[in-house]
Design brief:
The structure is a single chain. The chain has helices spanning 14-37, 46-74, 87-95, 116-141, 146-149, 157-181, 190-197; strands at residues 7-10, 199-202. By secondary structure, it is mainly alpha-helical. It has a single domain, classed as Fumarate Reductase Cytochrome B subunit (Up-down Bundle). It has a two-stranded antiparallel ribbon. The longest helix is centred in the first third of the chain and has 29 residues, at 46-74. The model has no long low-confidence stretch (mean pLDDT 91).
Length: 205
């Protein structure tokens, strides 16, 4: 790989960067307070953790809806259309090529910011995991209204808590993998720098 960049490309808008770091803060807070409320450790106290978890969770739902509105109105939803083109090459790269010093088979462009593997991953997050976590969280939060809504016969609070915690662990696993993947650029902090400034360096290879 080239050691020195040969150019720069502006990939991420201010809103994309704001959403990325805001969501990181939201998810970190929800994981921290959620696991405390589940009795894993003590930091804020149960009442404080539960209160903060509920308020941040509601804010997350609103922020997510704003994000969906943004990608639809700006056309950025096209960045998440799944494709199998070069998918196998990208998978092989992450399994073997990255450790052998090979170049990434899918260079980023303004029109294609995410490689095929990222598209499948982010689409699954946006359409399955995150909505699932938000829906189960809202149901948990509205437990006292179940009887009035007539759904108390169909839902178990224990079951709901179990699947909500399972979703939290799935998100935590994604965060760990995602943080690792940010270190796989030409430099350890290259991708992180790009998400801060919006600019990413380009290389001949």
């Amino acid at each position: 790989m080239s050691e020195k960049p040969t150019g720069r490309i502006y990939l991420f808008t201010k809103y994309e960067r704001l959403w990325h770091w805001l969501q990181m803060a939201i998810i970190f807070t929800l994981l921290l307070t959620g696991f405390e409320a589940a009795g894993r450790f003590k930091l804020f106290g149960y009442e404080g953790a539960a209160y903060l978890h509920n308020r941040v969770g509601l804010f997350w739902v609103i922020a997510f809806l704003v994000f969906l509105f943004w990608i639809v109105t700006t056309g950025e939803w096209k960045q998440y259309i799944p494709t199998t083109k070069n998918l196998f090459d990208v998978v092989i790269y992450y399994i073997y090529g990255i450790f052998a010093g090979h170049s990434h088979p899918f260079p980023k462009t303004k029109e294609a910011k995410h490689n095929p593997l990222q598209r499948f991953t982010y689409l699954a997050l946006a359409t399955l995991l995150l909505p699932f976590q938000m829906a189960t969280g809202l149901l948990y939060w509205s437990y006292n209204s179940w009887e009035a809504w007539g759904i108390d016969k169909y839902l178990s609070l224990k079951w709901l808590a179990t699947v909500h915690v399972a979703g939290a662990f799935a998100i935590l696993a994604f965060v760990i993998i995602h943080v690792y993947m940010t270190t796989t650029g030409h430099t350890v902090f290259g991708y992180i720098k790009g998400m801060i400034t919006g600019w990413e360096d380009t290389y001949d290879d």
